[in-house]
Amino acid sequence: MEKKELIYEGKGKKLFATGDSALLIAEFKDDLTAFNAQKKSQEKGKGALNAAISAKLFELLERNGVATHLIKRLDETDHLIKKTRIIPIEVVVRNIATGSLTKRLGIAEGTKLPFTLVEFYYKNDDLGDPLLNDEHALLMNLANEKELTALKRLARKINDILLPFFESVRLKLVDFKVEFGRDEKGAILLADEISPDSCRFWDALSGEKLDKDRFRQDLGGVKVAYEEVLKRVQEALR
Prior knowledge:
The chain is of the alpha+beta class. About 30% of the residues lie in helices and about 30% in strands. The strands form 3 sheets. Strands 8, 9, 10, 11, 12, 13 and 14 form a 7-stranded antiparallel sheet that branches. The two termini are about 25 Å apart.
């Protein structure tokens, strides 16, 4: 499948048209961004690592009944995907308190939550991706009530699949962000990616952070951490 014109470029990926109007090619970039792109850098090979990790996890989710936009991985950095209209809501799933949750509510870092918390954020860089409730989303016509219910259900289903999987590879799935899109028939598909850019992973024994927090917090070793996540994922999903 040949790349044609660039139709969108985000923080972590470029999207290209193809000869089929229903299909796109997603190219994973080496760019690193944090704090709504106020902090920027590059890590050579990061895009290929995320492309590999995300493809494996999307395939795992597909086998367990979660419909995704992924058709196949084309090469080191490129995925062939179904074209969707992205719902402008970032769905964040939290199992352990950290990051903005601890800052907003004062919950101690590392506290295991008594239930899976699902939050909505408005996907809008100019506004800083603000926290949404259901009524905000309805007011802004981002999704209807049925779709909001579906987003929460799918997010929890993804978490129910990924939690035990990552436990099996000695990683704590602290939290993660997912995005969804509507296909040409209006069906909701998991889109974007699931990778150390969009998840927080802590080593189950040492507590070492193996995700983009290494960049956010100037810990170093970003690529090494991503390589370790890929190694464990590949060993479990051969």
